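Ligand-bound model needed. adenosine monophosphate.
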Amino acid sequence: MTTFTELGLSECIVRAVSEHGYTTPTPIQLQAIPAVIKGGDLLAGAQTGTGKTAGFTLPILERLSKGANAPKNKTDRRPIRALVLTPTRELAAQVEESVRTYGKHTNLNSGVIFGGVGINPQIKLLKNGVDILVATPGRLLDHKQQGTIDLSHIEILVLDEADRMLDMGFIHDIKKVLAVLPQKRQNLLFSATFSDDIKALADRLLNNPAMIEVARRNSTVEIIAQKVHPVDRDKKHPLLAHLIKTHSWNQVLVFTRTKHGANKLVEQLIADGINSMAIHGNKSQSARTKALSEFKDGSLTVLVATDIAARGIDIDQLPHVVNYDLPNVPEDYVHRIGRTGRAGATGEAVSLVCVDEFKLLADIEKLIKRQLPQEIIDGFIPDPHAKAQPIQLRSFGGQGQGQGRGNGGGGGARSGNRPARPAQGGSRDGNPSRPATKPVVKQNTPRRSGGRGNV
Ligand code: AMP
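Prediction:
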């Protein structure tokens, strides 16, 4: 088995990695680390959960700690030499934490800047100088405009979760940043998906890149136990409370489609005596940080999040992810459940699916190339006559974090009034037109083949 040392990392970096508990490189690390150390550009297809952060952090630390420009100590003023751009504040903070963790025995230092918090401490940080800066694009440009940042010594640029940055409308900001960087530099682009826009960005940015794609979907998806609970729209909240209480779940990440939905659910769960907080784009940075840290240290039972706010949340061995609403974009399902089952740990992802969401479920199953087992919970049998309603895509009064992306955005009653699983809610004798007389409560039985055609 290949070790971190054999990948070309120095002893002080390998030591930090092993002190952090990692002995074996993940597949993305096996490929990315030597490629980045070599110095060329890189195009990597990898999502959160694969170990991608260390995949670029470790070789960047290696490169910057060697050679003529390597700092002689931790404290001298120095120019920024590596810039990592991320779509969200949470991800920026986590990436910078990784840089600090893995770089602790080097002379390199790092900093993070993002919006939603005061700019003055960041100005001070930038004045003192850091070797590696992790930033969200908007705040980085604020600093550029104010003349409080010097990007003229950048040797390495990383675009992390580039697909998400484009989804969030950062392309113009990225172009503005690229325009002020030195021409000669190493570029690393990480993306979970490869849309035409990403390919266009890669074409513009990368020069003869090494290309890496790790088998992410299946490898991540396969170690996670996934289950669908068909349920009526208005029974989702009592069902969630029931699941949390009966199984004594104590660390649950719950996804809602909208910020309004997240707030409402938190109120309901708190009324049930379940300790919950929400994390989304309308929350202040301090509220988000507080919620995340209490969730991480185990004092908060339920964290309710919208997709973008949760992006990159990195919690080792998070046991439970609940899709309270299915995402509109099937790829988001994979991102969501990737919060559990990290780097080999097993986890459980549960989806509460009502009649409005059958089409979304079918899209997800198509993407992950498997049918998800369904289980109707006793006491929460869905009404077989319920009619699908259009899916609400936007929060009330929100400004669009995590909504309205992809898939035409229309939602709506796309699936008609069909049960999530024909084998249970409908005919069991092979006649798909015969309506169910009574829904069947089953435990964990895989859907019979042919079910997909009905959704
Ligand atoms: P990432 O894909 O960067 O978000 O990392 C996913 C998770 O895997 C994080 O919790 C990392 O700390 C963890 N991780 C990264 N590299 C390794 C490794 N070589 N062995 C085990 N876990 C790792």
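Residues 89-102 form the longest helix (14 residues).
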